[in-house]
Amino acid sequence: MNVGLFIPCYVDQFYPHVAIATLRVLEAVGCTVRYPLNQTCCGQPMANSGYAHLTGGCDENFIRNFADYEYIVSPSGSCTLHIKQHLHGENATHETAATAIRSRVYELTEFLTDVVKVTDLGTLMPKRTAPIRVGLHQSCHGQRGLHLSQMSELMAPPFSKPVQLLKQIEGIDLVTLDRPDECCGFGGTFCVTEEAVSAKMGKDRVADHLRQGVDCITGVDVSCLMHMEGILKRTGSSVKVKHIAELLTNTL
């Protein structure tokens, strides 16, 4: 499979090891991966702040970088959802390309379960030396936008694509949270405009994981994990925070 690796700007700047782990996972399942060097921000921060009309440059740059790939994969549910729902071209030709891209962009766990249909990822990854207790944070964009897992308020059969993958890795003990799909409070620019509310929501989310005695908190969105990691560091906690790609490649 010909994959274009879409790395959000904040991952590139602050968490490049997540991008490397994503690359390793994709290559382990047989993908040919390329990283377009001229990619930048997808435009989500501006759109979320009410300035969607200013994202045209980001859209055009994304189209130039990714139009020729069979699949586009990202370790970020929120950025993936933004492209799926909001990427547009400045003219008819570019709009055709944008429409095609919107149908070919995937969040990492979505791609692994729905496209690659991996069922035994553990055989392709390094073995874990010791078991760890892991709490999974279900990010809002991934769960409610990309439908990576079932929402707990719905009377429907439960499913979770991240859990499906984590259970294939030996030595990961997934805990059950009291509130499995509660928002962490990050919310992009919400954490700036409503700092106090955001921080309190994050503390509540972290507390749930701590009650279960986790060694590590994981998820599919580095932005949410960054928010919770900051809260943990300010309390001196030893609990680690890792993107799911890092757990799948046993880089803890």
Number of helices: 13
Q: What's the count of strands?
A: 8
Structural class designation: alpha/beta
Q: In one word, what is the shape?
A: globular
CATH architecture of the largest domain: 3-Layer(aba) Sandwich
Q: Calculate the mean pLDDT score and round it.
A: 94
Radius of gyration: 18 Å
How far from one another are the termini? 28 Å
- SSE sequence, one letter per element: EHHEHHEHHEHEHHEHHEHEH
- Secondary structure: helix percent: 40-55%
Integer count of domains: 2
GO cellular component, one term: cytosol
Organism: Fibrella aquatilis
Protein name: (Fe-S)-binding protein
GO molecular function, one term: oxidoreductase activity
Secondary structure elements and pairings:
Elements: E1 2-5, H1 9-14, H2 16-28, E2 32-34, H3 44-48, H4 56-66, E3 71-74, H5 77-86, H6 92-102, E4 105-107, H7 108-115, E5 132-137, H8 140-145, H9 161-166, E6 172-174, H10 190-193, H11 195-211, E7 216-219, H12 222-234, E8 240-243, H13 244-248
Parallel strand pairs: 1-2, 1-3, 3-4, 5-6, 5-7, 7-8
Write a structural description:
Residues 3-84, 134-228 form the Cysteine-rich domain. InterPro entries: Cys_rich_dom. One of its GO terms (molecular function) is oxidoreductase activity. The protein has 252 residues and is of the alpha/beta class. It has 2 domains: 2-114, no CATH class; 121-248, Rossmann fold, CATH 3.40.50. The protein is 46% helix and 12% strand. It is built from 13 helices and 8 strands. It has helices at 9-14, 16-28, 44-48, 56-66, 77-86, 92-102, 108-115, 140-145, 161-166, 190-193, 195-211, 222-234, 244-248, and strands at 2-5, 32-34, 71-74, 105-107, 132-137, 172-174, 216-219, 240-243. It has a 4-stranded parallel β-sheet with strand order 2-1-3-4, with helices on both faces. The longest helix is centred in the last third of the chain and has 17 residues, at 195-211. It is globular, with a radius of gyration of 18 Å. The chain starts with a strand and ends with a helix. The model has no long low-confidence stretch (mean pLDDT 94).
